[in-house]
Write a structure and sequence with these properties.
The chain contains 5 helices and no strands. It is mainly alpha-helical and 111 residues long.
Length: 111
Amino acid sequence: MTWLDHLWMAVILLGLAAATFVTRTSFLLAGSRIRLHPRAEAALRYAPVCTLAAIVVPEILLHGGQSVDFSLLNPRMIGAAGAAVWLLFSRNIVGCMATGMLAFTLARVLL
């Protein structure tokens, strides 16, 4: 890489850092002066769950970028189902993770 490439990389990095800083701190700096519409606030409450689902669901259903696997022989699906059943009856998140990992491990060993 030449010095010009390093310069452009530094400019891009600084620009991305500045953009991240401005967007992340804008809500903190604005404080209570700016109020969102109640529907927007209600929708934002679901953002973490939607983000987690967008990350986890493809990992459960896709194997190495291949087709979607809804079969009962999918150990990831069995682990997710075990975790869901645990969470349905108990709101204990640690037990949910343990049950899901146990079901996933048993499915991988036995299938």
